[in-house]
Design a protein that fits this description.
Blueprint: H1 6-11, E1 15-19, H2 27-36, E2 41-45, H3 51-61, E3 66-70, H4 75-84, E4 88-90, H5 96-105, E5 109-110, E6 112-113, H6 116-124, E7 129-132, H7 140-148, E8 155-158, H8 164-171, E9 179-181, H9 187-192, H10 195-206
Parallel strand pairs: 1-2, 1-9, 2-3, 3-4, 4-5, 6-7, 7-8
Helix pairs in contact: 2-10, 3-4
This protein binds 2-keto 3 deoxy 6 phospho gluconate.
2-keto 3 deoxy 6 phospho gluconate binds next to strand 9.
GO molecular function, one term: 2-dehydro-3-deoxy-phosphogluconate aldolase activity
Subunit structure: Homotrimer.
EC number: 4.1.2.14
Length: about 210
């Protein structure tokens, strides 16, 4: 049972890094590089074969990290993430089974939604803090402004297609608590072990909200 709340995950910093780990050896240095830049909340996506082991390794070896699992597509993913030591979860979309399983497991979950109907289903299940995915293809800033009308109580973490250049405009919206993005851990820098670049990108991301 985690004592962490979704609000705490969303409020820790302006940007949640969406991380893809191809090789297990990258996990700990990458986590340390992000933390050195001031980013503690780390979302490791379950997109690669080593993702669960990477979560376990970071949970064990980088205690300053608030480690979570992304790309939770179903209840089995959620259970595997919990077992690996994830302290929160993020999903690209929402199913009632996933939302209920996260609630009963006590895992803070940031569920993805894209439409008003999906948002209403998530609200029905008691979730008012949501990932808006894929943010830019689904209407970006204009869509978030439109959703603010009927659903002013919902707090979003838009993710998908956001860049350092557009991040500030998203963060300025009243219904945006934080944003997600993969640009903090560029594949080339990670592959070559250029952790200084990751640290610099992390500190620039933290500085997006003074
Ligand atoms: O894997 C998941 O769980 C996802 O939901 C997808 C990611 O959140 C986006 O792919 C990140 O978007 P970019 O910052 O545009 O790369």
């Amino acid at each position: 049972m985690s004592s962490l709340s979704v609000a705490a995950v969303m409020n820790d910093g302006p940007v949640i890094p969406v991380i893809v780990i191809e090789e297990l050896a990258q996990a700990v240095p990458m986590a340390r590089a992000l933390i050195a830049g001031g980013v503690r909340v780390l979302e490791v996506t379950l997109r690669t074969p080593v993702a669960l082991q990477a979560i376990r390794l970071i949970a064990d070896e980088v205690p300053e990290a608030i480690i979570g699992a992304g790309t939770l597509a179903n209840v089995a993913d959620l259970e595997a993430a919990l077992k690996a030591g994830a302290r929160f979860g993020v999903s690209p979309g929402s199913t009632v089974s996933l939302l209920r399983a996260a609630r009963s497991a006590g895992l803070p979950l940031l569920p993805g939604v894209m439409t008003p109907g999906e948002l209403m289903s998530a609200l029905d299940e008691g979730y008012g803090a949501l990932k808006f995915f894929p943010a830019v293809p689904a209407g970006g800033i204009a869509m978030l402004k439109a959703l603010h009308g009927p659903f002013a109580q919902v707090r979003f973490c838009p993710t998908g297609g956001i860049s350092p250049a557009t991040a500030k405009d998203f963060l300025a919206l009243p219904n945006v608590a934080c944003i997600g993005g993969s640009w903090l851990t560029p594949a080339a820098a990670v592959k070559s072990g250029d952790w200084a670049t990751v640290t610099r990108l992390a500190s620039e991301a933290v500085a997006l909200r003074p």
